[in-house]
From TrEMBL:
Gene3D superfamilies: 2.60.120.200, Immunoglobulins. It holds the Pfam family Lectin_L-type_dom. Residues 315-386 form the Pesticidal crystal protein Cry22Aa Ig-like domain. It comes from the Bacteria. This is Pesticidal crystal protein Cry22Aa Ig-like domain-containing protein. Residues 236-307 form the Ig-like domain. It comes from Pseudolactococcus plantarum.
Amino acid sequence: MDDVFESAVGDGISYNDTRDVLQMSSGTSQTGAIWSKNKIDVRKPFVFKAYIYLGDQGNSAADGMTFSLQSRKNNFLGKSGQYLGMYATGERYYLSLEFDTYYNGDGLDNPHENSGLKKDGQHIAFNTGHSNYHYGKSELPSSYEMSNNYWKQITVTGKPMTSKYFKISYTYKDMGTGDTFSHGTDVYFTKDGGGDGGHTFLDDPNVYWGFTSSTGRQFEINALSFDTIPQSASIKTKDIQIDKGERWSPKDNFVSATNEYGETIGLDDPHLSTKDNVDTNKTGNYTVTYTYQGEYGTATASASVKVLEEFTLEASDITINQGEKFDPFDSRISLKAYDPIDGDLTNKIDVSENDVDSSTAGTYHVSYQVKNSSGKVAKKTITVTVIPFNPWPDGKTDGWKMFSGEDINLTVDPDNSILETNEVFFSDKQASIYKIFSGKDELKEGEDYRVTVYFKPLDDKIPLSSYRVKVSLKAESSSDDYRELINTTLNTGTPYQKGYYSVMAEFTVSKDELTPLINVENYQGGYIGSVSVLPIK
């Protein structure tokens, strides 16, 4: 249940040890409900099967259960008693299939009012908000008791008719007596639609589904167990690798499939077809496509067949952000090793070389190797590109200001920017910019940070040893006190692309430096391509 449903709500809820049976009430004046985690689209066919238990209280049972559809929330719970844990909330648009065990002839079930019922007694029917009318009703004979200590199999089927409504039907089968009742109704889910008598049940085709239950002054033990949940047709496949010349058929990539009624089908189902271009006599990548053509819709899935001749190791280049922790086994690298004899050797791959330094933007390399049972070694080297941190996302200054207090001016200059967005800060003379790191940028006490700045001189004739840069930190922006993080010349920096040099320093945040002002000074004219203050991971 836990994979499909949210936690049940109400005061009558309890599970069995294996959590495949849910008791929803066991005493008076109780309510209970359980709803799906995800919505279904009633514009697609669905089938739902469950078993419900309505106690053994006979004609003194009360009040019953519902199977319901609603689009609002998946912890929805109505009132107890005649409201069946679903009604009397003020909600207008829902669809409930009620299994009403109470022999009342008043309130919502008064046959003398506009309820659609013709007599007092137990019944099965569809209901909705702002209406007492019962649609698709089965008024049960007095000789039959719903609360008779037997489980009931409930099957609910949805069949789309147009873009505005679907037909819903139910079959109720008593597993002890064999008594069976069936009926259905049209369900409109647009506000300008109309159902029986011009009524709209739902205002949205995407709905949660679930069960509700209630008791009043009288009670019954209500419980349910699930069999088949609503779903569209689906096909599951798997990608495979085979040796050149090896026998293959579409069943090798096929895992499982269900039809539009939720029933498991095999590859031999007449509604399933396959198409492929596989040639096992030639190495290469091939595709096999599976198609389910149903009465109301189509489902497709594809899988790859890789015909191998040689022992291979596969890995992809990767790009990461400055400051991001690099993992040589990152899933984005898509590491895979395969040998026609040994099979999958992915978990045997080792890193032979790794020069990645994610604190500094640049191009790095990681080399991998794997050995098969015959001693043969496959090797692969990838490129890891570390791109500079973008301090000005979406072209916004993000709090960076000039020493005079106004926002900095960013220039779009692809030739002199090292950011993917092409922004750069430029000044033809000495410049000082600062930012107060507060709010989402606030630093954490006791943690280690690394500040990195990318500078580019305006005049490449000026010796780098004369090009001084400085980064300082003020615990209080209004204070004259500060501590120096960087005070150096660019000849000590690390060369980067487009004539930039990076300088960096590490520092530990004290308790009075959580929202500091960090100031960056460029003592000569030039560019500031990136400024980052990132925790050291």
